[in-house]
């Protein structure tokens, strides 16, 4: 068609036609470049970068699990003292105290390796616990505790960090019948997360809430061997955690993230071994434990993530992190029993999973009357 037109109109100047064609091409190229400059970034799990939210959800599950296990320990302490409930070298005629209070301070460090699009984290927690308890019937004890903690979360490879302030309310109970003891504990917690993500235009920040619920039941049997003991244990634990949806502010392409939910059920099977020494009216009790852990059910929901600069329909689904199916817990405890009404204690608790480890140290005091 172009050749025909040119032949039919030989008087048309060739230069203006060439200039017009070149101009048109330049305009098209310029428009294409302009479009490329304003095109939104490609949305992938790697570019959404909500690693801190996954760390916060995992931290809530771990803190709830740790609190549950400390509550059952409080409810069942004293296997070696059953033949002499007054404690240590006290007279066996000493009346059992009916009430008790305890306070604890603890520190916890943990590390999660990379999995999927999650690049791994490091967490440090410091907290305190206060509790009260009472004997309401022969062999039946109940208690109530409050746990307040702060966790610093660091995701160095994603240049992200956060603080998790968490309050947990816990109840515990134990029933003792001869060598058998059944203990239960339940917790409800609520948290506040402040996160920061580095971008080329400064930090993208967010503030959102979280909550956690958990329950633990443990059955154990005590073999007394003089001043020593062996205590086989089996426990069933369930914990669920959630974080609210949030929208980042500031930075380059702030993200919008849906709420996150996770739940975990597991069985723990193991044993404690211990021994105590009596020094006059005082005693020292030491013990160690090991447990096999089977996370037989885990449901860590996916999270919908988008960018504030894109319509809400432009989101992707990113999977959260979870523990390995099998693992082990191990720890040790030492109590200095001052009298039948006071003791000081220190505990170590470790969790060992494929791709996850944590270490916790606890100092506490218990008073009875």
Q: Approximately what portion of the residues adopt beta-strand conformation?
A: over 45%
Shape: elongated
Mean pLDDT, to the nearest integer, reads 83
Q: Give the helix level as a range of percent.
A: 10-25%
> Spatial order of the strands in the main sheet?
1-2-3-4-5-6-8-11-12-15-16-17
What is the strand and helix layout of this fold?
Blueprint: H1 2-8, H2 14-38, H3 45-48, H4 51-76, E1 99-112, E2 121-137, E3 140-155, E4 160-177, E5 180-199, E6 202-221, E7 223-225, E8 228-243, E9 246-247, E10 255-257, E11 260-279, E12 282-300, E13 303-307, E14 315-318, E15 326-339, E16 342-353, E17 356-368
Antiparallel strand pairs: 1-2, 1-17, 2-3, 3-4, 4-5, 5-6, 6-8, 7-8, 8-11, 9-10, 10-13, 11-12, 12-15, 13-14, 15-16, 16-17
């Amino acid at each position: 068609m172009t050749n025909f037109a040119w032949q039919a109109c030989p008087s048309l100047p060739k230069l203006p036609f060439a200039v017009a064609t070149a101009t048109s091409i330049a305009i098209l190229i310029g428009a294409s470049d302009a479009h490329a400059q304003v095109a939104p970034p490609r949305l992938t799990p790697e570019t959404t970068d909500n690693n801190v939210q996954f760390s916060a959800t995992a931290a809530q599950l771990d803190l709830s699990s740790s609190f549950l296990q400390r509550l059952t320990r409080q409810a069942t302490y004293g296997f070696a003292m059953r033949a002499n409930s007054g404690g240590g070298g006290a007279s066996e005629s000493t009346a059992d105290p009916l009430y008790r209070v305890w306070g604890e301070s603890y520190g916890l460090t943990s590390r999660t390796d990379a999995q999927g699009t999650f690049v791994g984290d490091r967490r440090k927690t410091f907290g305190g616990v206060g509790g009260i308890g009472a004997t309401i019937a022969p062999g039946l004890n109940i208690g109530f505790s409050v746990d307040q903690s702060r966790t610093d979360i660091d995701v160095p490879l994603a240049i992200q960090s956060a603080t998790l302030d968490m309050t947990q309310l816990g109840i515990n109970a134990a029933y003792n019948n001869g060598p058998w003891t059944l203990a239960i504990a339940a917790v409800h917690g609520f948290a506040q997360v402040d996160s920061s993500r580095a971008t080329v235009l400064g930090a993208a920040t967010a503030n959102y809430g979280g909550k956690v619920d958990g329950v633990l039941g443990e059955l154990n049997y005590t073999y007394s061997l003089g001043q020593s003991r062996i205590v086989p244990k089996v426990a069933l634990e369930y914990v669920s955690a959630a974080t609210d949806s949030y929208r980042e502010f500031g930075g380059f392409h702030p993200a919008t993230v849906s709420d996150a939910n996770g739940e975990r059920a597991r069985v723990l099977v193991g044993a404690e071994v211990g021994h105590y020494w009596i020094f006059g009216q005082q005693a020292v009790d030491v013990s160690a434990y090991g447990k096999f852990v089977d996370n037989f059910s885990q449901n860590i929901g996916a999270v919908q993530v988008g960018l504030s600069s894109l319509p809400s329909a432009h989101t992707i689904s990113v999977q959260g992190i979870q523990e390995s199916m099998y693992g082990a817990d191990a720890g040790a405890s030492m109590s200095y029993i001052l009298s039948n009404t006071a003791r000081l204690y220190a505990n170590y608790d470790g969790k060992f999973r494929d791709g996850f480890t944590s270490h916790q140290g606890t100092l506490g005091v218990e008073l009875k009357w």
